[in-house]
Specification:
Elements: E1 2-8, H1 12-23, E2 29-31, E3 45-46, E4 56-57, H2 58-71, E5 75-77, E6 81-85, E7 91-95, E8 100-109, E9 113-115, H3 121-126, E10 131-132, H4 135-138, E11 146-150, H5 154-163, E12 169-173, H6 183-191, E13 195-198, E14 201-207, E15 216-221, E16 227-231, E17 234-237, E18 241-243, E19 273-275, H7 287-307
Parallel strand pairs: 1-2, 1-8, 2-5, 8-19, 10-17, 11-12, 11-17, 12-13
Antiparallel strand pairs: 3-4, 6-7, 7-8, 9-18, 14-15, 15-16
Helix pairs in contact: 1-2, 1-7, 5-6
Bound molecules: NADP nicotinamide-adenine-dinucleotide phosphate (NAP).
């Protein structure tokens, strides 16, 4: 059976697209991916999503969006997309280890972005053994301990502030002498007595591979080139994100950072393929902008299907 619309990804972009496509009677199928609900499921309180005057927990927001899409008729399938063929229509996608095959007249790609890593061997070996990319998920394990947070953006400061609820001391390590994070977060961080900063420094290595748990960190000061070692129990990496576009590489136009290029609404370089959310946005990257572009992608996909007279 060829479907009207398949949406790949189930964060705010994918689920908003699903809500709109359902309301347009397009019977969308959402392939949820390995992290159903996307990045908001690993955050805590969301204070800036309109409509929630007291804030809402990220996982709750995503559960509510999914319930809304389901109520309107969206179908969901678990699992990751293994491959896509965008060279001809209907588009063919294979899902999960069983390579379940689905076909669609239009495709909305809303697969988001993933946390970037430092690419150190020690980081790989100690992931889950003191190295983490998610304070919300792992902060609890560092009760009364000392942790480092790498990065100088909003994510780094949010993670660091959250970690002060558990850890004895939280040190932010930034490669420059000025933070990239918004002023409000900076003010909050500088006031926090449990927080400390190390400037102009990059991580040379994470220590503890032999012990099979993080014991410290080796830093290089980029100005003085001095190498220092600091003891710690945890290292949280918060240095930005990489778009999850590996599957589409070579099939669709990407920018030099690997983000899908959208034009004229949410159209991609392949007619019938639309993109929404963080996979095509490295500037705003907010839940509300992801949801907005999800809505746009669904409307664009509906118009595409109508214009091709292939509405089921
Ligand atoms: P980001 O703004 O890109 O910041 C990444 C940080 O990591 C920068 O300080 C960068 O340093 C540093 N960095 C990058 N690569 C590095 C490396 N290899 N080694 C060491 N440091 C490295 O990413 P983000 O903080 O994840 O934020 C992404 C977007 O989401 C932003 O638009 C942000 O406003 C938004 N966001 C918003 C909220 C909120 O509204 N509450 C919360 C989280 C995120 P440089 O500064 O030197 O480039």
């Amino acid at each position: 059976m060829v479907r009207n619309i398949i949406i790949i990804g189930s964060g705010p972009a994918g689920l908003t697209a699903a809500i709109y496509a359902s309301r347009a009677n397009l019977n969308p199928l959402v392939v949820e991916g390995s992290q159903p609900g996307g990045q908001l499921t690993i955050t805590t309180q969301v204070e800036n999503y309109p409509g929630f005057p007291d804030g809402i927990m990220g996982p709750q927001l995503m559960m509510d969006m999914k319930r809304q899409a389901e109520r309107l008729g969206t179908e969901f399938v678990n699992g990751d997309v293994i491959s896509v063929n965008l060279s001809k229509r209907p588009f063919v996608i294979l899902v999960g280890e069983e390579n379940n095959r689905y076909e669609a007249r239009a495709l909305i790609i809303a697969v988001g972005a993933s946390a970037r890593l430092l690419n150190l061997e020690s980081e790989r070996r100690l992931m889950g053994k003191g190295v983490s990319v998610c304070a919300t998920c792992d902060g609890f394990f560092f009760k009364g301990q000392e942790v480092m947070v790498i990065g100088g953006g909003d994510t780094a400061l949010e993670e660091a502030i959250l970690l002060t609820k558990f850890a004895r001391k939280v040190t932010v390590i930034h490669r420059r002498d000025r933070l990239r994070a918004t002023k409000a977060l900076q003010d909050k961080a500088f006031k926090n007595e449990k927080m400390d900063f190390i400037w102009n420094s990059v991580v040379e290595d994470i220590l503890g591979v032999e012990e099979d748990k993080v014991t410290g960190i080796r830093l290089r000061n980029v100005e003085t080139l001095e190498i220092t070692e600091k003891g710690c129990d945890g290292v949280f990496i918060a240095i930005g994100h990489t778009p999850n576009t590996r599957l589409f590489n070579g099939q669709i136009e990407l920018d030099d950072k690997g983000y899908i290029i959208t034009r004229d609404g949410m159209k991609t370089s392949v007619p019938g393929v639309f993109a929404a959310g963080d996979v095509q946005d490295h500037v705003y990257r907010q839940a509300v902008t992801a949801a907005g572009t999800g809505c746009m992608a669904a409307i664009d996909a509906e118009r595409f299907i109508e214009s091709e007279s292939i509405y089921l």
